[in-house]
Amino acid sequence: MKTRFITAALFSIALMAGTSSIFAQDKMMKDEKTVMVGGAAMYPSKNIVENAVNSKDHTTLVAAVKAADLVETLQSDGPFTVFAPTNEAFEKLPKGTVETLLKPENKTTLQTILTYHVLAGKHSASDIMKDIKKGNGKATYKTVSGGTLTAMMKGKKVMLMDEKGGMANVTIADVNQSNGVIHVIDSVVLPK
Predict the structure, then answer these.
(1) What's the CA gap between 26 and 78, in Å, rounded?
(2) Which residues form the signal peptide (predicted)?
């Protein structure tokens, strides 16, 4: 009888400890300043990949990151600044482009395009705007792929120009991550 009582008491304590741990984690996540992207809250305590997989607006980007074997890189400490094209941005590309890029034989090209959307370091929207002001209306950044992206202002919004002259608008800025920041863009930027 005594053994059953002790076992039940220990089980209750373990259950309460586990439950309070879940509640503490849930409360911590609720206390975080989240940004909604693609119908999902983006948590600053999660890394770029952990957040991106929950955005219904970024399923193409997530598939591309997986196909390019960049998941591990984007889960590392970074920090990184990622200009994240939406599904609609990928749909603006010529018909068949995404399907072609996702083929294993095009992995290197896909890696180059995706890393062209990434800057080393964490660059908030205010940092980028300060750089644009310092550069008399333009700021040029070297991407992880080795190319350059040029940022400029259009009214109060940040725009990016790629090496081919293509333009992308930042539609959601400062989606903070544990390993950097994401800025959602409405077009895919392309290197030369």
Answers:
(1) 26
(2) 1-24
The strands making up 139-142's β-sheet, listed across from edge to edge, are: 118-120, 80-85, 180-185, 167-177, 157-161, 148-154, 139-142
Query: E-strand spans in 1-59?
Result: 35-37, 40-42
Which pTM value belongs to this model? 0.82
Q: Any bridge partners for residue 35, and if so which?
A: 42
When divided into structural domains, the chain yields a total of 1
Q: Which residues contact 29 (CB under 8 A, 6 or more apart)?
A: 43, 45
Whether the CB-CB separation of 107 and 68 falls below 8 Å is answered with: yes
d(CA 89, CA 92): 5
pLDDT digits (tens, 9 = 90+) for 150-191: 999 999 899 999 999 999 999 999 999 989 999 999 999 999
What would the DSSP string read from start to end of 129-168?
HHHHHHTTT-EEEE-TTS-EEEEEEETTEEEEE-TTS-EE
Q: Is residue 179 part of a domain?
A: yes
- Cβ burial of 17 (10 Å; 0-12, 13-18, 19+) is exposed
69 lies in some domain = yes
Q: Is residue 101 part of a domain?
A: yes
